[in-house]
Design goal:
Blueprint lengths: L3 H33 L4 H27 L5 H54 L1
């Protein structure tokens, strides 16, 4: 039977693996948003800064709660392994599928907005 310390470290490795997947999943959501809605470089940088601030806070919480604030190589290995697993397996399918599903709605919505702008512009010119 494993000691409580080893079980705790195994659990942290397991959590780190899934946090690595979660980090990449959230960043993919930003990438999808950027594909669907044009962003200036300033907004991309702001989004990235906010993303990394949130990731840092979550990882700090994870390490502080489950490992008394110690950074261990197995934790970093779990994060990297989870990230690579996600990026090589799930990410391409997820981003392509979500873009394929959502893109028609964005086109419809942007067409609707452009129609509204035309009518608004005409009504402003008539008055």
């Amino acid at each position: 039977m494993m000691s409580a310390e080893v079980q705790s470290q195994f659990y942290l490795l397991f959590l780190a693996f899934f946090w690595g997947i979660g980090m990449c999943f959230v960043y993919d959501a930003l990438r999808i948003l950027r594909r669907l809605v044009r962003h200036s470089i300033v907004w991309i940088n702001i989004e990235d800064i906010l993303y990394w601030m949130a990731v840092t806070a979550v990882l700090f919480y994870l390490l502080f709660t489950y490992n008394r604030g110690e950074i261990r190589s197995f934790t970093i290995a779990g994060l990297i392994t989870g990230s690579i697993f996600y990026l090589k397996t799930i990410s391409p399918v997820y981003t392509a599928l979500v873009c394929w599903i959502i893109k028609p709605f964005f086109r419809l919505f942007s067409g609707f907005l452009s129609l509204l702008r035309k009518f608004r512009h005409k009504s402003e010119n008539n008055h």
